[in-house]
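FAQ

Q: What does a record look like?
A: Structure on top, sequence underneath. For example:
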């Protein structure tokens, strides 16, 4: 296996590296399957793992004549509906024709003998994912951070302006009742992991006396749910570090990754999720969104500017955007709890997941504060 190199222009962190211990597959079997089903690959040269994703296992397989990305769910038990490779394949095998920021998916394999789970094969696109700083190749631009931020907003707005029927992805979801199903589904996911976390893990307690603050926020969200005005294609985890840029161009997102939750529904769910990840000058260390350390120093536009840019591009009414931001924050708390629970149960070998328990309470508290109209920074 060769040593991975960081992407040109990106000094930290590297794009990919050696496969983590415990995340190995039978790569010879996998390569043979790909060689049998995709023409012109040649021999397998090297295997790497993308280092920065927190859930799905994503690998780069280098063949003599081509690079391919392979994605499969994490090992062990997973929540119902999570890590849906079939859904991601349906999205990426079609969206690339009308939304060129979507990498093309070539193949879906449901033969568990190959890689132990469903997996899909996607084109590899070289470029820069912005994590914790402005990439070196972009620092010569004035206001590079603002350019990067507005480019991310523009990419989201363009996705939401697609016609799902014309894009061939109308079967990704059922827009009627979408938000209700989201609320029900995420409350059920929390319930599935809450008891062992609350009973046995003080770091994961979600209220002052072990009270279930996550459940309380879910109930408040359900009681104050706004009416859906329009529907669109949703990515469902849209954020800066799921976007890729050409190394020297901060003005346009060239690729968007991680489509396994893509669906059809209320587009403000996507916007609220993104705002939940977005740093703002109003943030303080005890009340900040969930984003990589360093993004708050990149000179990104504020959350209010993000909301304004999105509204101008789409014509959306953002009167209720704080609800959607709170929903995004609450959902993130549950995702973190699931990842932490998987680690505790021995289903993940990624040591980063063992540090996530401390994040559940602050995220739930932040979601509650947003619902109360405190500290949103989004101009509402």
């Amino acid at each position: 296996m060769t040593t991975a190199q960081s992407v040109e222009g990106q000094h930290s962190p590297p794009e990919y590296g050696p496969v983590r211990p415990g995340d190995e597959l039978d790569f010879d079997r996998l390569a043979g399957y790909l060689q049998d089903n995709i023409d012109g690959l040649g021999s397998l040269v090297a295997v790497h793992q993308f280092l920065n994703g927190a859930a799905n296992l994503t690998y780069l397989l280098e063949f003599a004549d081509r690079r391919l990305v392979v994605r499969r769910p994490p090992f062990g038990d997973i929540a119902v509906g999570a890590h849906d490779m079939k859904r991601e394949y349906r999205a990426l095998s079609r969206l690339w024709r009308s939304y060129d920021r979507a990498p093309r998916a070539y193949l879906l394999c449901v033969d568990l003998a190959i890689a132990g789970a469903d997996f899909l094969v996607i084109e590899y696109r070289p470029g820069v994912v912005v994590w914790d700083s402005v990439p070196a190749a972009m620092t010569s631009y004035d206001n590079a951070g603002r350019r990067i931020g507005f480019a991310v907003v523009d990419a989201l707005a363009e996705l939401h302006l697609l016609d799902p029927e014309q894009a061939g992805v109308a079967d990704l979801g059922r827009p009627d009742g979408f938000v209700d199903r989201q609320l029900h589904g995420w409350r059920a996911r929390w319930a599935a992991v809450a008891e062992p976390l609350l009973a046995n893990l003080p770091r994961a307690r979600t209220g002052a006396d072990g009270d279930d603050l996550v459940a309380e926020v879910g109930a408040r969200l359900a009681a104050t749910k706004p009416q859906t005005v329009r529907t669109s294609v949703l990515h469902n985890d849209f954020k800066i570090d799921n976007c890729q840029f050409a190394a020297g161009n901060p003005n346009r997102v060239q690729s968007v990754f991680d489509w396994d939750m893509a669906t059809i529904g209320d587009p403000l769910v996507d916007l609220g999720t993104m705002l939940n990840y977005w740093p703002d000058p109003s943030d303080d260390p005890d009340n900040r969104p969930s984003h990589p350390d360093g993004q708050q120093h990149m000179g990104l536009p504020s959350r209010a500017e993000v909301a304004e840019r999105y509204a101008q591009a789409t014509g959306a009414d953002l009167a209720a955007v704080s609800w959607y931001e709170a929903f995004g924050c609450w959902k993130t708390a549950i995702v973190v709890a699931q990842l932490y629970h998987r680690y505790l149960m021995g289903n993940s070998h990624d040591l980063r997941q063992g540090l996530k328990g401390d994040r559940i309470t602050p995220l739930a508290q932040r979601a509650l504060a947003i619902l109360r109209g405190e500290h949103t920074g989004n101009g509402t």
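Q: Is there anything notable about this one?
A: The first helix runs from residue 27 to 37.
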